User: What shape does this take?
Amino acid sequence: MKALSGALSWTGLLSVLLATMSWSSMVAGAVDGATKRRIEGVFDKDDHTNNWAVLVSTSRFWFNYRHAANTMSMYRTVKRMGIPDSHIILMLADDVACNARNSYPATVYDHPQKTTDLYGDNVEVDYRGYEVTVENFIRLLTGRVSADTPRNKRLLTDDKSNIFIYMTGHGGEDFLKFQDSEEINSYDIADAFQQMWEKQRYREILFVIDTCQANTMFSKFYSPNVLSIGSSAKGENSYSYFHDYDLGVSVIDRFTYYNLEFFEKVDMASKNTMEDLVGVYNVSLLRSHPGVRTDLFGRKLSETYLTDFFGSVQNIELTAEAFPIGQPESK
Amino acid sequence: MRTQFPCARLTSAAAVAAVAVAMLVAPVLGLDPPSSVAAPNESFSEDLFLRPLADGKVLLHFEFEFQRRHDEANSTQHHYHLFPRQIGEIALRYDVDELHLSFTQGNWRERQWGYPPVNSQGVGAEARARIRGSDDHIAAQWTGLTNALSGVFCASLNFIDDTNTVVPQMVFAESQKSGRAGVLRQGYLPRESVCTENLTPWIKQLPCQSRSGIGALLNPHRLYNMHFHSMSMSLESVDLSDSGKPGASALRYTQQLSVVLDPRAFGLEDNWSLSELMDTHVPHACPVADRSTVRVLASPGSGLDVKPKASSKTSLAGLDMHVFDMLKQKGKAPADIELRFNTPKLSAGSSVDPIQPAVAVHRFVTGHGGSSGGVETTLTNRGDKPVDILYLDSLPWYLRLYSHTLEITAQKTDDGLEPASAELGMPVKLTPSASLFTPAIDRGRPATMELALTLPAHSRTTLRYSFDKGFLKYTEHPPDANRGFNVGPAIVSYASTAASDQTSGKDHGYQPRPLACAIKETLHGESSSSAQCTVRVYSELFLANMPTPDFSMPYNVITFTCTILALFFGRIFNLLTRDFAVLDPVKKTSEKNEVSVD
Assistant: This one.
């Protein structure tokens, strides 16, 4: 072992470690071929490496409290399952928690008993108020944001990202209303997804939508690797669930409530699959027929873990051998 | 072997593992571990001022201050230890000399509550920055700065553009010290709300966040259940005269949060403690703070018992100040501060603060209808001496301000409120000693009016002007168009001196002083007589109701036109262009007979 003179900074320590590694690999000879193939196999593995979530509530006004509560339920779920705030884009069209009409300020509840505060103490809303528009949503998805847009308002995905996109609000056949003044239709979202596919901005997308006639919103998708779940079929409404007499509004929608109830029993180490989630939907309780579209999705629902979309699981390969990260240029 | 680690857990586990490895490996290789004490050129202090108000509510003012000396030797390396790196890098990147950002909700009721603890009480979001460079450069940097701040504080500050940016020349000029270049820009968003998502990144900038120290008292469920809330941050360069080196400068970053809470809303009556009020545990001092205090301000003779015994008892702006030094409680269980009110319960809203602010501003919109209106501002000077004020008012471009309709009249009053009686004299027309009008450009910039006025002693000055409502394109209306547009406040600024603060003509036995000035002086160890402090008073907002178009008209026109085309155009076209000929029935039967004969 060479004697090393003390360097007084961490960069020194790092360079020392790298030197030690490369020195020991030189002494040990070439890395074993099988190990090299195994380690390289990790990089070639066809699996996602990062998870993103885009959660959108498109409704304005106090009486649409439940749409903000829906989105906050998904936010809570996704954070509990491990996706950090830096990988969540939360879009709330109106401020419901600190609204002057809210007799419980800084809270959003999903149940009249007010057992769970969905807003909590640690929430980061990326697009709020008037910023939640169709144009901003499509720009976010396709990445065509203005140069000044800060990092937390950009969807910085790559070709190995799994994205969970959740939308809620008032909708109809092939459209979703944004802020009571404009609409996005299913063709727009389908084209945005196709642009994302062409620019390699996702590996798989889970698209969940809770609006009236939600299943029509994903009927026009044509890009690969998109799994869609909607709360109601064409011609059906999606219904709200609890009415809170303190707040004076309905606090959650049925579809999202049953999703939340399922996820409250699940944690980030869960091996549950998407089939378990879809199996929970009960048509008589939901009062609508939720739809699942799997023809564009490459895998079977029973083989797709919940944490593939809702969690942020890192696959780690542990090895005791040294592996050269890059060969130094020999001049 | 394939292991699955959740992302969130990996970071903290990895950090612990990395530190452990470093600690073990470093001595072996003969390296020193990195320094774990605070960098000598940075300091942090935290203070909480608690003041029960005259109408039974409570004012809490949190103040967190970072100071970072400029390291001349190391000016290219920017190593941040306690100072939040986000803010340092934003200031560096956008050539910012001075930055101020505040989020406020609720009106400051100056009659009941006295002087506010902060200088910006304007509802909504206010961003002010002094940027160096040429005009084009400043415009680009301003856009970049507002976008960057919107990302940091989770607010829609990116809506600040030319139509709501004002370049005040007179009002904020006192901060333009000699040698400091840069143009001050102020962007105002009166409709911006403030909620937990703004508090979350603000708390994350504190070194101890909400885990220990005064920051542990920041419970959003209490902070937003309030009558007034103002959360601000300001960044400025200060000259340190006590550093031993003449002209040594430092960067000071101050985070302030002021709230007015009503303990009765939380079920607390005459006897409550700080942890009960904020619904948190009693905090220890933040370990990296140089100073960590809780100060209770009580009006003398108000019958307030404060337990436990304070570390020191002094006075601040005429109020008794009980100082609790949290750093002295290291190693012991921190003591909860209890307040007991011995005076009978006060009915809400009936009481008035004994120290009324010297200058008060209230602004209202007048007129009715969708074509025109007016603005009326009442400036009250309760002081014994005339006060020189600077008045800044701006209207968005669609409220077309007529500067020739500006009228300023002053009326002497008994205490600034009572209607004038005959012996007080007739209203007097006031002329501003300096005025600066910047007319609006449609969709380009707002109209700005800056006036320098001298308000007579014990008077109420009324400032009136008219405006016409312009016409907005239907795409320029917000989604909730029927609400109208919030219009930002008028700002009055004046220098607070001993003479100007005297308000009742009689000697109280103490020197009334604006609370914001007093707090600043006591925290920085300046004496009140020498320092001149600028006080700013913000008026209320108003809602301008613009005539809204019928947003369903484009749909109506399309449907109507298509119906006409489909149903009527075809038929009319056929009627007009087809030629109708009558067939002769007789000729036809004879032809038929001829055929059948064969």
User: Anything to note?
Assistant: Chain B touches chain A through 52 residues (CB under 8 Å). Confidence is low (pLDDT under 50) at residues 1-20, 25-38 of chain B. The first helix of chain B runs from residue 7 to 29. Residues 503 and 546 of chain B are 41 Å apart (CA to CA).
